Amino acid sequence: xxxxxxxxxxxxxxxxxxxxxxxxxxxxxxxxxxxxxxxxxxxxxxxxxxxxxxxxxxxxxxxxxxxxxxxxxxxxxxxxxxxxxxxxxxxxxxxxxxxxxxxxxxxxxxxxxxxxxxxxxxxxxxxxxxxxxxxxxxxxxxxxxxxxxxx
Length: 151
Hints:
β9 and β10 form a beta hairpin. The strands form 2 sheets. Strands 1, 3, 5, 6, 7, 9 and 10 form a 7-stranded mixed β-sheet that branches. Helix content is 10%, strand content 48%. The chain is mainly beta. The protein has 1 helix and 10 strands.
């Protein structure tokens, strides 16, 4: 019985780090299997404290290949307006995942997200996008709900 509880607790901690997400509009040419924000104990809406650093990673399988890729993190303000995070806007995606991007190969993207204390508190939809540097219609993109809080 003890082993069962220990194993259940272990898998509960792993599941707590997975965040719920949805693909971006327009069915990007990419499938995303899991999004992890560590720590995230509320997968429906990760509650993040300003001034802290979080591990953000996701597993993706693109339908396209790309020698060079870009990435960006955005606040999806409306369905048509995205506000970029200055720390990660039009950044070299090859710093966070293996390049070249290979079609139909499962890859992992890893990023260390530092949240400034100056960010406004509130509930937001974060949008993370990775795209072919030469053709931004070839992209992997998802949205997840975030709550930014004071310490």
